[in-house]
Amino acid sequence: MSEINGWLPYCGSAPAPGELVGRWNLDPGLLLALGCVAFLLVRQRDVGARERNLALAAMVLALALFVSPFCALTSALFSARAVHHLFLTAVVPPLIVAACPRLRSILGGALPWMAAHAIIFWFWHVPQFYSWALSNDPAYWLMQGTLLLSAVGLWSAVREAPVTTAIAALLGTMVQMGLLGALLTFATEPLYAPHLIGPIAWGLSPLEDQQLAGLIMWAPGAGIYLAAALTLLARWFAQERAAALAG
Questions:
Q1: Residue 27 DSSP symbol
Q2: Gap between the Cα atoms of 66 and 172, Å rounded
């Protein structure tokens, strides 16, 4: 359990498999905040059904990440935390950006946002800072908030940037995500003290759990950014071909 090591994460102590189904997080403050965000997203003016559906999808994922028993699972498994961070930075933000047509990058372009997001992402994966976030609720929400907001800034800037800059930002993010995943995969010892005990109940050693987290970041994590870059590239080629044929 996490509290044995002195950590009691926001999502609670590390559950055993038989305990997980009952571990819903019904924090009233969290539910109120999510409800307010959902209301603002769904009640946007001058948006169509597509944008409202995307906003709904983003909120469903937010509920899965922070309210469902998956929240408790992230206290036990670092690999579950990797999935959590992957959805928080690479799935929910582009849904939010697509659901909010008037959302614009406030400062900087795609490349500065890429750098800022990479710094924040690596910062929270430094073992000491990660342990701090799992032992202190304000630090936990600082971690979640900075990861989410910097990712929203990145995806919003990518939407507005010239296609070559947008592709460069996505590929740069892919590289940094893959590099961190590789470092975790090939580490020879577990690095994250809050997950030294929790994985054992799930049939994993702490090192195996960390290696699984690294593979999640390395393959599907980096793959999301690669897929987005290739999609932009394909659209660019299609536009150039259409322009050439029209000319």
A1: -
A2: 28
Per-residue DSSP letter, 15: P
Rounded Cα gap, residues 155 and 174, in angstroms: 13
CA distance 107 to 99: 20
Backbone angles phi, psi at 215, to 5 degrees: -65, -35
State phi, psi for 201 to the nearest 5 degrees: -65, -20
The pTM of the full predicted model, rounded to 2 decimals, is 0.92
Do the Cβ atoms of 13 and 3 come closer than 8 Å? yes
pLDDT at 4 over 70: no
Tally Cβ neighbours within 10 Å of residue 20: 15
Q: Which amino acid is at 194?
A: P
User: Do 110 and 55 touch, CB atoms closer than 8 A?
Assistant: no
With a CB cutoff of 8 Å and minimum separation 6, the contacts of 143 are: 124, 129, 130, 133
Q: Do the Cβ atoms of 102 and 233 come closer than 8 Å?
A: no
End-to-end CA distance of the chain: 67
Cα-based angle 147, 81, 108 (whole degrees, multiple of 5): 15
| Furthest C-alpha separation in the chain | 70
Q: Which residues of 119-155 are buried (b: 16+ CB within 10 A; e: fewer)?
A: ebbeebbeeeebbbbbbbeebbeebbebbbebbbbbb
| 80-107 residue pLDDT tens | 999 999 999 999 999 999 998 887 766 7
